[in-house]
Amino acid sequence: MEMAKQIFTFYLRDEGIRYSQQRECILDVFLSTEKHLTVIDLYHLVQKKHSGIGYATVYRAIKIISQAGLAREVDFGDGMLRFEHKYKHEHHGHMICTKCGKFIEVVDPQIEELQEKLARKYKFTPQRHKMQIYGTCEKCKTKV
Amino acid sequence: MEMAKQIFTFYLRDEGIRYSQQRECILDVFLSTEKHLTVIDLYHLVQKKHSGIGYATVYRAIKIISQAGLAREVDFGDGMLRFEHKYKHEHHGHMICTKCGKFIEVVDPQIEELQEKLARKYKFTPQRHKMQIYGTCEKCKTKV
DNA sequence: TATATAATTGATATTGAATTTCATTTGCAG
DNA sequence: CTGCAAATGAAATTCAATATCAATTATATA
Protein backbone atom coordinates (compact mmCIF):
# COMPACT_ATOMS: atom_id res chain seq x y z
CA MET A 1 0.00 0.00 0.00
CA GLU A 2 2.54 2.50 1.15
CA MET A 3 4.68 1.92 -1.87
CA ALA A 4 1.77 2.74 -4.12
CA LYS A 5 1.24 6.02 -2.30
CA GLN A 6 4.89 6.87 -2.73
CA ILE A 7 4.66 6.25 -6.43
CA PHE A 8 1.71 8.61 -6.52
CA THR A 9 3.54 11.28 -4.54
CA PHE A 10 6.55 11.08 -6.83
CA TYR A 11 4.32 11.21 -9.88
CA LEU A 12 2.70 14.38 -8.60
CA ARG A 13 6.07 15.93 -7.91
CA ASP A 14 7.43 15.02 -11.33
CA GLU A 15 4.40 16.41 -13.07
CA GLY A 16 4.20 19.52 -10.94
CA ILE A 17 0.77 18.52 -9.68
CA ARG A 18 -0.14 19.76 -6.22
CA TYR A 19 -0.99 17.78 -3.16
CA SER A 20 -4.56 17.89 -1.92
CA GLN A 21 -6.48 16.18 0.85
CA GLN A 22 -9.17 15.16 -1.60
CA ARG A 23 -6.77 13.37 -3.87
CA GLU A 24 -5.13 11.59 -0.96
CA CYS A 25 -8.52 10.43 0.29
CA ILE A 26 -9.57 9.24 -3.16
CA LEU A 27 -6.32 7.33 -3.60
CA ASP A 28 -6.72 5.72 -0.17
CA VAL A 29 -10.23 4.58 -0.94
CA PHE A 30 -9.19 3.28 -4.33
CA LEU A 31 -6.21 1.37 -2.96
CA SER A 32 -8.25 -0.21 -0.21
CA THR A 33 -10.94 -1.49 -2.54
CA GLU A 34 -10.03 -4.52 -4.59
CA LYS A 35 -12.82 -4.18 -7.09
CA HIS A 36 -13.44 -2.96 -10.58
CA LEU A 37 -14.86 0.42 -9.73
CA THR A 38 -16.67 2.84 -11.96
CA VAL A 39 -16.20 6.54 -11.27
CA ILE A 40 -19.61 6.64 -9.60
CA ASP A 41 -18.79 3.62 -7.43
CA LEU A 42 -15.62 5.31 -6.30
CA TYR A 43 -17.46 8.57 -5.75
CA HIS A 44 -19.98 6.88 -3.46
CA LEU A 45 -17.24 5.20 -1.46
CA VAL A 46 -15.34 8.46 -1.13
CA GLN A 47 -18.54 10.22 -0.03
CA LYS A 48 -18.71 7.97 3.03
CA LYS A 49 -15.43 9.38 4.26
CA HIS A 50 -15.64 12.95 3.06
CA SER A 51 -19.08 13.90 1.88
CA GLY A 52 -17.80 17.22 0.61
CA ILE A 53 -15.80 15.71 -2.23
CA GLY A 54 -17.52 16.16 -5.57
CA TYR A 55 -17.90 13.83 -8.49
CA ALA A 56 -15.68 15.91 -10.75
CA THR A 57 -12.84 15.71 -8.28
CA VAL A 58 -13.11 11.93 -8.07
CA TYR A 59 -13.23 11.76 -11.84
CA ARG A 60 -10.11 13.87 -12.17
CA ALA A 61 -8.28 12.04 -9.41
CA ILE A 62 -8.79 8.55 -10.82
CA LYS A 63 -7.50 9.84 -14.16
CA ILE A 64 -4.32 11.03 -12.45
CA ILE A 65 -4.05 7.76 -10.55
CA SER A 66 -4.23 5.97 -13.89
CA GLN A 67 -1.60 8.18 -15.40
CA ALA A 68 0.63 7.51 -12.42
CA GLY A 69 0.42 3.85 -13.34
CA LEU A 70 -1.58 2.74 -10.31
CA ALA A 71 -4.88 2.07 -12.05
CA ARG A 72 -5.86 0.56 -15.32
CA GLU A 73 -9.04 1.28 -17.24
CA VAL A 74 -11.10 -1.77 -18.10
CA ASP A 75 -14.13 -1.86 -20.32
CA PHE A 76 -16.66 -4.65 -19.89
CA GLY A 77 -18.78 -3.24 -22.64
CA ASP A 78 -21.60 -2.14 -20.37
CA GLY A 79 -21.16 1.53 -21.09
CA MET A 80 -19.19 2.40 -18.02
CA LEU A 81 -15.46 2.56 -17.64
CA ARG A 82 -14.08 0.71 -14.68
CA PHE A 83 -10.78 1.03 -12.90
CA GLU A 84 -8.77 -1.74 -11.36
CA HIS A 85 -5.49 -1.85 -9.49
CA LYS A 86 -2.42 -1.97 -11.65
CA TYR A 87 0.44 -1.70 -9.22
CA LYS A 88 1.81 -5.13 -8.36
CA HIS A 89 -1.05 -6.73 -10.19
CA GLU A 90 -0.05 -8.92 -13.05
CA HIS A 91 -1.41 -8.13 -16.41
CA HIS A 92 -4.48 -10.22 -16.90
CA GLY A 93 -7.52 -10.71 -19.02
CA HIS A 94 -11.12 -11.03 -17.98
CA MET A 95 -13.61 -13.79 -18.30
CA ILE A 96 -17.05 -12.24 -18.10
CA CYS A 97 -20.34 -14.08 -17.56
CA THR A 98 -22.96 -12.68 -19.91
CA LYS A 99 -25.75 -13.87 -17.63
CA CYS A 100 -24.83 -12.78 -14.13
CA GLY A 101 -22.18 -10.21 -14.98
CA LYS A 102 -19.61 -11.81 -12.72
CA PHE A 103 -16.07 -11.95 -13.96
CA ILE A 104 -12.83 -13.70 -13.23
CA GLU A 105 -9.38 -12.33 -13.77
CA VAL A 106 -7.24 -14.70 -15.75
CA VAL A 107 -3.54 -14.74 -16.42
CA ASP A 108 -1.84 -16.82 -19.06
CA PRO A 109 1.83 -16.25 -19.70
CA GLN A 110 1.66 -18.30 -22.89
CA ILE A 111 -0.98 -16.01 -24.36
CA GLU A 112 1.05 -12.99 -23.30
CA GLU A 113 4.03 -14.38 -25.11
CA LEU A 114 2.07 -15.13 -28.26
CA GLN A 115 0.67 -11.62 -28.23
CA GLU A 116 4.15 -10.21 -28.16
CA LYS A 117 5.22 -12.52 -30.94
CA LEU A 118 2.24 -11.35 -32.96
CA ALA A 119 3.18 -7.73 -32.42
CA ARG A 120 6.72 -8.39 -33.54
CA LYS A 121 5.47 -10.09 -36.67
CA TYR A 122 3.58 -6.93 -37.67
CA LYS A 123 6.40 -4.61 -36.55
CA PHE A 124 4.17 -3.19 -33.88
CA THR A 125 5.50 -1.83 -30.61
CA PRO A 126 2.99 -3.08 -28.06
CA GLN A 127 2.12 -0.87 -25.11
CA ARG A 128 -0.78 -2.68 -23.53
CA HIS A 129 -3.30 -5.27 -24.45
CA LYS A 130 -6.72 -6.38 -23.45
CA MET A 131 -8.44 -9.70 -23.61
CA GLN A 132 -11.99 -10.50 -22.71
CA ILE A 133 -13.68 -13.85 -22.94
CA TYR A 134 -17.46 -13.64 -22.74
CA GLY A 135 -19.50 -16.70 -21.87
CA THR A 136 -21.49 -18.31 -19.13
CA CYS A 137 -20.04 -19.24 -15.80
CA GLU A 138 -20.55 -22.59 -14.13
CA LYS A 139 -23.52 -21.43 -12.04
CA CYS A 140 -25.33 -19.85 -14.95
CA LYS A 141 -24.67 -22.68 -17.35
CA THR A 142 -27.80 -24.56 -16.29
CA LYS A 143 -30.07 -21.54 -16.22
CA VAL A 144 -32.27 -20.60 -19.17
CA MET B 1 -22.92 -12.32 -50.19
CA GLU B 2 -26.13 -13.99 -51.14
CA MET B 3 -25.72 -16.55 -48.44
CA ALA B 4 -25.46 -13.79 -45.86
CA LYS B 5 -28.70 -12.27 -47.11
CA GLN B 6 -30.40 -15.64 -46.83
CA ILE B 7 -29.25 -16.00 -43.27
CA PHE B 8 -30.76 -12.61 -42.59
CA THR B 9 -34.04 -13.50 -44.26
CA PHE B 10 -34.33 -16.70 -42.28
CA TYR B 11 -33.48 -14.89 -39.08
CA LEU B 12 -36.27 -12.40 -39.71
CA ARG B 13 -38.71 -15.21 -40.42
CA ASP B 14 -37.74 -17.13 -37.29
CA GLU B 15 -38.06 -14.06 -35.12
CA GLY B 16 -41.29 -12.89 -36.71
CA ILE B 17 -39.62 -9.68 -37.83
CA ARG B 18 -41.03 -8.09 -40.96
CA TYR B 19 -39.33 -7.39 -44.22
CA SER B 20 -38.69 -3.77 -45.15
CA GLN B 21 -36.91 -2.01 -47.98
CA GLN B 22 -34.93 0.05 -45.51
CA ARG B 23 -33.52 -2.97 -43.76
CA GLU B 24 -32.61 -4.61 -47.03
CA CYS B 25 -30.81 -1.48 -48.16
CA ILE B 26 -28.93 -1.17 -44.87
CA LEU B 27 -27.88 -4.81 -45.01
CA ASP B 28 -26.67 -4.42 -48.60
CA VAL B 29 -24.59 -1.39 -47.74
CA PHE B 30 -23.15 -3.11 -44.69
CA LEU B 31 -22.26 -6.27 -46.58
CA SER B 32 -20.59 -4.35 -49.38
CA THR B 33 -18.38 -2.33 -47.07
CA GLU B 34 -15.42 -4.16 -45.60
CA LYS B 35 -14.72 -1.68 -42.85
CA HIS B 36 -15.27 -1.21 -39.17
CA LEU B 37 -18.25 1.07 -39.36
CA THR B 38 -19.81 3.13 -36.62
CA VAL B 39 -23.56 3.63 -36.77
CA ILE B 40 -23.03 7.13 -38.12
CA ASP B 41 -20.63 5.88 -40.78
CA LEU B 42 -23.20 3.36 -41.90
CA TYR B 43 -25.92 5.99 -41.78
CA HIS B 44 -23.96 8.27 -44.10
CA LEU B 45 -23.32 5.44 -46.55
CA VAL B 46 -26.96 4.45 -46.52
CA GLN B 47 -27.99 8.07 -47.07
CA LYS B 48 -26.19 8.05 -50.42
CA LYS B 49 -28.54 5.37 -51.68
CA HIS B 50 -31.75 6.30 -49.92
CA SER B 51 -31.63 9.70 -48.34
CA GLY B 52 -34.96 9.12 -46.67
CA ILE B 53 -33.66 6.50 -44.25
CA GLY B 54 -33.20 7.87 -40.77
CA TYR B 55 -30.50 7.33 -38.24
CA ALA B 56 -32.75 5.41 -35.86
CA THR B 57 -33.60 2.93 -38.57
CA VAL B 58 -29.95 2.30 -39.33
CA TYR B 59 -29.26 1.94 -35.63
CA ARG B 60 -32.06 -0.58 -35.23
CA ALA B 61 -31.12 -2.47 -38.38
CA ILE B 62 -27.47 -2.99 -37.49
CA LYS B 63 -28.58 -4.32 -34.11
CA ILE B 64 -30.76 -6.89 -35.87
CA ILE B 65 -27.94 -7.71 -38.27
CA SER B 66 -25.74 -8.37 -35.25
CA GLN B 67 -28.34 -10.55 -33.64
CA ALA B 68 -28.65 -12.50 -36.87
CA GLY B 69 -24.97 -13.28 -36.52
CA LEU B 70 -23.79 -11.26 -39.50
CA ALA B 71 -22.08 -8.45 -37.65
CA ARG B 72 -19.92 -8.26 -34.58
CA GLU B 73 -19.55 -5.24 -32.32
CA VAL B 74 -16.01 -4.08 -31.79
CA ASP B 75 -14.85 -1.46 -29.36
CA PHE B 76 -11.60 0.36 -29.96
CA GLY B 77 -12.06 2.39 -26.85
CA ASP B 78 -12.67 5.65 -28.66
CA GLY B 79 -16.22 6.02 -27.44
CA MET B 80 -17.96 4.72 -30.51
CA LEU B 81 -19.12 1.22 -31.18
CA ARG B 82 -18.08 -0.22 -34.50
CA PHE B 83 -19.45 -3.11 -36.48
CA GLU B 84 -17.51 -5.53 -38.61
CA HIS B 85 -18.51 -8.50 -40.74
CA LYS B 86 -18.87 -11.73 -38.89
CA TYR B 87 -20.17 -14.16 -41.46
CA LYS B 88 -17.34 -16.17 -43.01
CA HIS B 89 -14.82 -13.98 -41.29
CA GLU B 90 -12.49 -15.75 -38.97
CA HIS B 91 -12.47 -14.67 -35.43
CA HIS B 92 -9.65 -12.24 -34.97
CA GLY B 93 -8.17 -9.70 -32.64
CA HIS B 94 -7.12 -6.16 -33.34
CA MET B 95 -3.83 -4.42 -33.16
CA ILE B 96 -4.48 -0.72 -32.77
CA CYS B 97 -1.99 2.11 -33.21
CA THR B 98 -2.43 4.63 -30.43
CA LYS B 99 -0.86 7.37 -32.54
CA CYS B 100 -2.54 7.20 -35.92
CA GLY B 101 -5.57 5.11 -34.99
CA LYS B 102 -4.93 2.58 -37.72
CA PHE B 103 -5.51 -1.03 -36.90
CA ILE B 104 -4.71 -4.46 -38.21
CA GLU B 105 -6.80 -7.56 -37.85
CA VAL B 106 -4.79 -10.41 -36.47
CA VAL B 107 -5.57 -14.08 -36.22
CA ASP B 108 -3.65 -16.53 -34.10
CA PRO B 109 -5.00 -20.05 -33.78
CA GLN B 110 -2.63 -20.78 -30.92
CA ILE B 111 -4.04 -17.91 -28.87
CA GLU B 112 -7.56 -19.05 -29.72
CA GLU B 113 -6.76 -22.48 -28.43
CA LEU B 114 -5.20 -21.19 -25.24
CA GLN B 115 -8.25 -19.04 -24.63
CA GLU B 116 -10.47 -22.08 -24.89
CA LYS B 117 -8.21 -24.01 -22.60
CA LEU B 118 -8.40 -21.16 -20.11
CA ALA B 119 -12.19 -21.16 -20.27
CA ARG B 120 -12.29 -24.88 -19.67
CA LYS B 121 -10.02 -24.52 -16.69
CA TYR B 122 -12.49 -22.13 -15.06
CA LYS B 123 -15.54 -24.15 -16.17
CA PHE B 124 -16.64 -21.31 -18.35
CA THR B 125 -18.63 -21.82 -21.53
CA PRO B 126 -17.08 -19.31 -23.91
CA GLN B 127 -19.33 -17.53 -26.41
CA ARG B 128 -17.06 -14.91 -27.86
CA HIS B 129 -13.85 -13.23 -27.00
CA LYS B 130 -12.05 -10.05 -27.76
CA MET B 131 -8.42 -9.20 -27.89
CA GLN B 132 -6.87 -5.84 -28.51
CA ILE B 133 -3.20 -4.99 -28.59
CA TYR B 134 -2.50 -1.28 -28.35
CA GLY B 135 0.82 0.10 -29.43
CA THR B 136 2.55 2.05 -32.15
CA CYS B 137 2.71 0.90 -35.73
CA GLU B 138 5.87 0.87 -37.79
CA LYS B 139 5.25 4.26 -39.37
CA CYS B 140 4.50 5.98 -36.09
CA LYS B 141 7.35 4.36 -34.21
CA THR B 142 9.80 7.09 -35.20
CA LYS B 143 7.43 9.99 -34.63
CA VAL B 144 7.40 11.93 -31.36
C1' DT C 1 5.20 34.64 8.23
C1' DA C 2 2.46 37.12 4.88
C1' DT C 3 1.36 37.40 0.23
C1' DA C 4 0.95 36.59 -4.64
C1' DT C 5 -0.52 33.35 -7.88
C1' DA C 6 -1.50 29.45 -10.16
C1' DA C 7 -3.55 24.90 -9.46
C1' DT C 8 -7.61 22.65 -7.42
C1' DT C 9 -12.20 22.14 -6.17
C1' DG C 10 -17.23 21.41 -6.59
C1' DA C 11 -21.41 22.74 -8.62
C1' DT C 12 -23.17 22.95 -12.79
C1' DA C 13 -23.32 22.92 -17.80
C1' DT C 14 -22.16 20.69 -22.04
C1' DT C 15 -21.23 17.02 -25.16
C1' DG C 16 -22.15 13.08 -27.82
C1' DA C 17 -23.36 8.39 -28.54
C1' DA C 18 -26.90 5.25 -27.43
C1' DT C 19 -31.50 4.50 -26.85
C1' DT C 20 -36.47 5.62 -26.50
C1' DT C 21 -40.79 7.82 -27.79
C1' DC C 22 -44.60 8.51 -30.64
C1' DA C 23 -47.38 9.82 -34.51
C1' DT C 24 -47.40 8.24 -39.12
C1' DT C 25 -46.61 4.77 -42.54
C1' DT C 26 -46.35 0.15 -44.22
C1' DG C 27 -46.14 -5.01 -44.60
C1' DC C 28 -48.91 -8.76 -44.56
C1' DA C 29 -52.39 -12.17 -42.74
C1' DG C 30 -57.01 -13.17 -43.20
C1' DC D 1 -59.43 -5.22 -49.39
C1' DT D 2 -59.10 -4.36 -44.73
C1' DG D 3 -57.38 -4.35 -40.05
C1' DC D 4 -53.73 -4.17 -37.20
C1' DA D 5 -49.36 -4.86 -35.41
C1' DA D 6 -44.71 -3.84 -36.70
C1' DA D 7 -41.53 -0.46 -38.76
C1' DT D 8 -40.18 4.15 -39.73
C1' DG D 9 -38.16 8.83 -38.99
C1' DA D 10 -37.88 12.95 -36.42
C1' DA D 11 -37.19 14.41 -32.23
C1' DA D 12 -36.61 13.76 -27.35
C1' DT D 13 -34.31 11.48 -23.61
C1' DT D 14 -30.68 9.25 -21.13
C1' DC D 15 -26.42 8.98 -19.08
C1' DA D 16 -21.46 8.73 -18.70
C1' DA D 17 -17.69 11.56 -19.88
C1' DT D 18 -15.83 15.90 -20.02
C1' DA D 19 -15.54 21.07 -19.75
C1' DT D 20 -16.47 25.52 -17.45
C1' DC D 21 -15.83 28.83 -13.95
C1' DA D 22 -16.02 31.35 -9.64
C1' DA D 23 -14.40 30.34 -5.14
C1' DT D 24 -10.88 28.04 -2.57
C1' DT D 25 -6.36 26.39 -1.35
C1' DA D 26 -1.39 24.84 -1.71
C1' DT D 27 3.02 26.54 -2.07
C1' DA D 28 6.98 29.31 -3.59
C1' DT D 29 9.20 33.41 -2.34
C1' DA D 30 9.72 38.06 -0.58
Could you walk me through the main structural features you see in this protein, from its secondary elements to its overall organization?
The structure is a homodimer of 144-residue chains. Chain A is an alpha+beta fold and 144 residues long. The first copy, chain A, has two domains: 2-85, Winged helix-like DNA-binding domain superfamily/Winged helix DNA-binding domain (Arc Repressor Mutant, subunit A), CATH 1.10.10.10; 93-141, Ferric-uptake regulator, C-terminal dimerisarion domain (Dna Ligase, domain 1), CATH 3.30.1490. Chain A contains six helices and six strands. Chain A has a three-stranded antiparallel sheet. In chain A, helix 2 crosses helix 3, helix 2 packs across helix 4 (55-67) and helix 3 (39-49) packs across helix 4. Chain A is flat. The first copy, chain A, starts with a helix and ends with a helix. The A-B interface holds A 75, 77, 95, 97-98, 104, 106, 108, 110-111, 114-115, 118-119, 122-138, 141 and B 73, 75, 77, 95, 97-98, 104, 106, 108, 110-111, 114-115, 118-119, 122-138, 141. Strand 6 (125-136) of chain A pairs antiparallel with strand 6 (125-136) of chain B. Chain A binds a DNA duplex (30 and 30 nucleotides) through helix 4.
